[in-house]
Amino acid sequence: MVLPSRFRGPFCYAAELLIHSAMLDYSKVCVKPLFLQHFAVREILYYQALCDEIVRLLRQEREHRKLSNYAVSQRSGVSESMLSLVERRLRNPTMELMLRVADGIGADLPALIQKATATMLKRRDKSGAARKRGAVHP
């Protein structure tokens, strides 16, 4: 199939994926934040960082309670391999997965989300203040 001229360029491959979406194995498709930025999805990096912070807090809580991935896996019904992939930030967790993991750990997910949000707001304020002072922020 030949793509229309409007699809030629840096997003040609993405357009082909969209056209042939009926034939895709969705478990192998990954949308990168940079791709979403080009299509004006605002604040995508903030949400990705927030998700990473929630996962970090879940892992910290698991380690604080001295639970192994196996124990959490048995309690939550989430496979050990998926837990490992999520903790290493190789997979993005769904809300259901985070709820199941938090339940398996015995943690309060809404409290962890609030804590992560507060942390992200502090980081955002610090980076905004640094930019106002003219400092270079990595």
Q: Short summary of the structure?
A:
With 138 residues, this protein is mostly helical. It is 63% helix and 0% strand.
Structural class: mainly alpha
Tell me the CATH topology of the largest domain: 434 Repressor (Amino-terminal Domain)
Sum up the overall morphology in one term.
elongated
The CATH superfamily of the largest domain is identified as lambda repressor-like DNA-binding domains
CATH class of the largest domain: Mainly Alpha
Number of domains: 2
Beginning-to-end CA distance, first to last residue: 44 Å
SSE sequence, one letter per element: HHHHHHH
Helical segment count: 7
Rounded radius of gyration (Å): 19 Å
Helix content: 55-70%
Kindly state the number of beta strands.
Answer: 0
Strand content: under 5%
Secondary-structure topology with pairs:
Blueprint: H1 12-19, H2 33-38, H3 44-64, H4 69-76, H5 80-87, H6 95-105, H7 109-133
Record keyword descriptors for this entry.
138 residues; mainly alpha; 434 Repressor (Amino-terminal Domain); 2 domains; 7 helices
Task: Characterise the protein shown here.
With 138 residues, the chain is mostly helical. The protein has two domains: 7-42, no CATH class; 43-132, lambda repressor-like DNA-binding domains (434 Repressor (Amino-terminal Domain)), CATH 1.10.260. The chain has helices spanning 12-19, 33-38, 44-64, 69-76, 80-87, 95-105, 109-133. Mean pLDDT is 77; it is low at 21-26.
